[in-house]
Amino acid sequence: MSCYLNGRFLPLADAKVPALDRGFVFGDGVYELVPVYSRKPFRLDDHLRRLQGSLDGIRLANPHEVSEWHELIVELIDLQDFADQSVYIQVTRGAPAEGQPPRDHALPKGVQPTVFMFAQPLVTASPAQKAAGVCAVSAADNRWLRCDIKATSLLANILLRQQAVDAECAETVMLRDGFLTEGAASNIFVVKDGVLLAPPPSNLMLTGITYDVVLELAAAHGIPHAVRAISEAEVRSADELWMTSSTREVMAIVKLDGVPVGAGVPGPLAQRMDALYQTFKQEVMRA
Ligand code: PMP
Q: Is the Cα dihedral 51, 81, 274, 239 positive or negative?
């Protein structure tokens, strides 16, 4: 499996970064995950825009122009021997230079960022998994207030996701001050009385690329929808609850904290949106 590190393509096992890299010492970096279908990156420009937003959020200059990112990502994709991929992109603030303090919170000057990318086979849910849906647990969102930055420091998300794993569930649905934010690694949608509800983008959540596509598809296909704050009571009385992400796509949550969501099976709108999403993917790949 080939990866990319600071200007070179090399086997993943040979990729080495200095121990003082701020990504390792502080979690001082940002990342993206781009799904690739039949060797075509999905919504790459949207991912690169979000990467730029994350870099701006942590005051780190983008080491590459958009066209350079395109070239590097296309080359990485070509080097893999599998067609459907998930490409992970990480940019950290790099390792302090000679003569600089080895570990100092303050932003170092004149340091080259570390750029690391690798590709894995993309594994999306099977039709059987989609038909079954998944269970989720809820938890208080105890993350920082810049959840719009896709930061590599994911400790809170990891611990929150583990609560779901411990309950043999797929996701943790997070609530802050009585309102829905998102999942530990996904966005959450609610369906009530035929209306699709999505929480509004803010510093309290990461706006998913899948989230955007779902809302675009809802608009394009006349599905009633609203982007607004969603209360915990609305989450708990939802007819349908979905999690969305690049790898999970549109996945119905059929049980929350052990209580069935709606009828306790994937709802009609989840199935319709998943079908629209699959068709949309195919169209993008053919384009
Ligand atoms: N929120 C969080 C916290 C995530 O980790 C993810 C997955 N990257 C998402 C939302 C969904 O984003 P996307 O649809 O771009 O995968």
A: negative
Percent of the chain with pLDDT over 90: 98
Which pTM does this prediction carry? 0.97
Instruction: Indicate the burial class of 46 (C-beta count within 10 angstroms; 0-12, 13-18, 19 or more).
Output: middle
Residues lining ligand 1, Cβ inside 6 A: 33, 157, 182, 185-187, 206, 208-211, 244-246
Average of pLDDT values for 84-103? 97
CATH 3.20.10.10 region(s) of the chain?
Answer: 127-286
**Lowest-confidence segment of 50-54, 116-120, 124-128, 201-205 by average pLDDT:** 124-128
Instruction: Write the residue with the smallest CA distance to atom 9 of ligand 1.
Output: 186
Which of the following is catalytic: 16, 40, 109, 150? 150
- Ramachandran bin of 178, using left for φ above 0, alpha for ψ from -120 to 50, beta for the remaining angles: left
Question: Is residue 238 predicted with pLDDT exceeding 90?
Answer: yes
Distant-in-sequence, close-in-space partners of 164: CB < 8 Å, separation ≥ 6 = 136, 137, 170, 171, 172, 184
Structure-token pair, residue 277: 């999403």
Ligand 1 pocket test, pick from 182, 203, 204 with the greatest ligand atom count within 8 Å of Cβ, gives: 182
Give span(s): CATH 3.30.470.10, the chain.
2-121
**pLDDT tens by residue, 40-83:** 999 999 999 999 999 999 999 999 999 999 999 999 999 999 99
Give the residue whose CA is nearest to atom 2 of ligand 1.
185
> What CATH fold (topology level) applies to the domain 2-121?
D-amino Acid Aminotransferase; Chain A, domain 1 (3.30.470)
Residue whose Cα lies nearest atom 3 of ligand 1: it is 185
150 a catalytic residue: yes
Task: Confirm or reject CATH 3.30.200.20 for domain 127-286, answering yes or no.
Answer: no
Tell me, in angstroms, the distance from the centre of ligand 1 to residue 34's CA: 11
Which ligand 1 atom minimizes the distance to the CA of 212? 14
